[in-house]
Amino acid sequence: xxxxxxxxxxxxxxxxxxxxxxxxxxxxxxxxxxxxxxxxxxxxxxxxxxxxxxxxxxxxxxxxxxxxxxxxxxxxxxxxxxxxxxxxxxxxxxxxxxxxxxxxxxxxxxxxxxxxxxxxxxxxxxxxxxxxxxxxxxxxxxxxxxxxxxxxxxxxxxxxxxxxxxxxxxxxxxxxxxxxxxxxxxxxxxxxxxxxxxxxxxxxxxxxxxxxxxxxxxxxxxxxxxxxxxxxxxxxxxxxxxxxxxxxxxxxxxxxxxxxxxxxxxxxxxxxxxxxxxxxxxxxxxxxxxxxxxxxxxxxxxxxxxxxxxxxxxxxxxxxxxxxxxxxxxxxxxxxxxxxxxxxxxxxxxxxxxxxxxxxxxxxxxxxxxxxxxxxxxxxxxxxxxxxxxxxxxxxxxxxxxxxxxxxxxxxxxxxxxxxxxxxxxxxxxxxxxxxxxxxxxx
Length: 443
Description:
The chain is an alpha/beta fold and 443 residues long. The protein has helices at 121-131, 143-148, 170-177, 179-193, 207-220, 241-249, 269-281, 311-317, 374-378, 385-393, 397-402, 413-417, 424-442, and strands at residues 23-25, 32-36, 46-47, 54-55, 60-63, 71-72, 77-86, 92-100, 156-160, 197-203, 227-232, 264-268, 287-293, 301-306, 325-330, 337-339, 352-357. α3 packs parallel to α5 (207-220), α4 (179-193) crosses α7 and α10 (385-393) crosses α13 (424-442). The chain starts with 22 loop residues before the first strand and ends with a helix.
């Protein structure tokens, strides 16, 4: 039985333009890719190639320096620059620029994995680490770190197919087109890590995905109590880790804790499917699927693109703009990042590129708060956004910490539900910045 989490909102889904469109490859590979050394939670990678080096597809070009995931070349060719370049997160990030030779020469270290069943948990963690896999639903948390935290602590793995943000449909297409990969990874992880229960969870607006997964699961499934397909109520932010854990298991992740602390690990369907493909092919994470949509896009599509490809070139592949874009977002409209132009590269965690015409992206004029309480009612973590706004303006660090602003996951439910059009997410971010500055002073 699924559980209903507190709060949340119901934005219009807007998935009709791409949900029936299969993921397609590019007609022509890009002439150049710009691969940033930061595409994950944690410290940026250190470039291990230099200008003039010849690289191959899947060759490691960025080595981790602490928490992170290694980065690999997405095309073969020549390194023409190693320098800071514009990044979707804002500012510039050290990047490796590769001029494509269009030969797609594979790295000599690429090989498929035999006898997967005899691997130890640590060996599969090391394999996942070398593949450069991160959370592909938007967060970008290194997958090998998540699996490391599961050893000896976790009894339940949750496969997250909620895809609760509007417009995005690539996870839905992953379930339809690569269901064998998803199930193959599930069985491998369950066997190696000894998970007692596996839950594949998606919102109730994806019945076709459930039909496909259930048909395949039923062919191999011996114990229905071990692997379950669970339909969750369609509500944002159903796909957030803490919400997913509660909805699927009834367990609550305490503030400051991780799902592993309550015996769960949550993995996005695309990340899970990629593990199976990597074990079969040995090819690291060098490309990804994403949705290109929005009122300014001429031909909305689901496409497979190499990591580091220019966002503007991807939009051109989708027919370009049919209207002057008022806002361009990498990711979903609720938690994605607005960018000032399209001259930025695609990252591992980018699951969508959205562009909206002026009439669909106008910012409402902010008005005075009417104390209606809708923001508090919508917050899935039971915070008080209006208090946080007040204390942020007053720079009252002590009270901000006391009311738990650091718990906020910046889902945007409060701002979406606010009739006064207050930029509450921005106040959350400012509040967190004030706390960081205060801690650095006292360090």
